[in-house]
Amino acid sequence: MPFADSRGVQLYYEEAGTGFPIVFVHEFSHDLRSWEPQLRYFSRRYRCIAFNARGYPPSDVPASPSQYSQVIAADDIANVMRDLGVRKAHIVGCSMGGYATLHFGLRHAGMARSLTVIGAGYGSDPDKRAQFLRDTEVMARRFERLGTPEAITIYQIGPARVQFQNKDPRGFREFCETFAGHSALGSANTLRGVQARRPTIYSLKRGLARMKVPTHIISGDEDNNCLEPGIFIKRVCRSARLTVVPATGHAVNVEEPDYFNRLTDEFLSLVDSGRWRPRQPA
Amino acid sequence: MPYAVTNGVRLYYEEAGKGVPIVFVHEFSGDLRSWEAQMRHFSRRYRCIAFNARGYPPSDVPASASKYSHVIAADDIANVMRRLGIGKAHVIGCSMGAYATLQFGLRHPRRALSLTAIGAGAGSDPGKRSQFLRDRAAMERRYLEQGMKAVARVVQHAPHRIQLAIKDPRGFREFWGHFVEGSALGHALTLRGVQARRPTLYSLGSRFARMKVPTHMVVGDEDDGALGPAVFVKRVCPAARLTVVRATGHLVSVEEPDFFNRITEDFLNLVDSGRWRPRDPRSLNPSTMARKA
Question: Which residue among A105, A263, B110, B199 sits deepest, i.e. has the most Cβ atoms within 10 Å of its Cβ?
Fold first, then answer.
């Protein structure tokens, strides 16, 4: 099995295709398998790399929450790239992976040709911040006490997941099965180290206003916790464009793979052609 | 030339294709010619009807502002349909026409198969409401005193219109070439009768909450005046879905015709197949992460 080294932590990855690289960064309740439709599609023209975050076997599962953080997650992307000899790539991330992608753009702008950020924003709403932190800790304890299959029964039919269940029951079943196989320790540590401690989208305002990497923000129209953060990024960051996808929840790439591939293909082609440009100033 | 007469006012229309009807309702700065890309695409499978609003020749230009209002605009859609023997139609509107489309859904829900509203809601932002009304009044005077060409020079590079100029200079020239052929009086009276008097979308929340017509809100991500209202309608109306279109301004159907046609076809197919459904109430659970245990 191929692993990339990130300061002593082994991260499992898969590769497909040749060409300019794309790195895919998965969300909390998925792993690299959630990028299957993207690996199959984009490998026709790109070198596609997907890896499992720390905490997601076959990647290592460090035992302490202190070994998990937003900064570490962004640097893991850079370290996987370095290990594979990739200097610059399109980065595509979903949810937790979308946050990591955004932070990668802020910390390692020179290594990013573009950023695609799907469903980033959970925990950003100031009115629900305390509730989010409580819910995060409740979930972390559920993983520890109940084990993954039992812990996730309430998570997988959350308000931004039921769209997937309604639209594509076969895909939804697969999602629940792969999620149930995740490491309970890895998931609990990720919640405490990353989700509970990461800065909100709104607190990134100054960095986003200066960031010049071509960025595509994507949100489902029923993803209540990500819609406003997505609009916020569009408004403060001149290099950001925003797509909101109709009748769709959280993991847009998993819920609407064809539509997502089409949108993303178009964005990457625009950037690769050298014709992308930032928003016209007022 | 074909006209539909509505309460004594003649409205010019064009038709293309056969099948389930679609009625197109144009925006303030356009006329039915803004729908050319849609008429050509959708006429392959639908009966497409586009008409010029009152105030837009060859439609009549009534001389009094009292003959123009958002209610009259919505009823004009119903009357055009009646004259053409159409019971029910998909209704698609842009900007001012999108507002009329939504009003049509509220006033005549049984006559709408679906509603598509592009860039609706300018003037809704409560923080900018008085500025909006002042700007309307100044613009009305400019129409009457300086004429269409002078207005075009000012408005065609507005923050939510500059995108078309950047992306598609040919389309931009055509659009504003059509604009300057319009009636300055018609535009001024439309501003006074419709834009300045219509209720904001935010004030219609309880009515949208009850409306059951399948609705697609479409808005450009750089259309700052319409983005908030579109999210609002999505949130209050269980029958509404929202598409925000990347790097796009006000006139999504003119600026991105292929993309607009594709997403509209997806939506109409879903409705026509009988598989459309409203929002799942479970998705309104206010939780931050999971369903409450």
Answer: A105
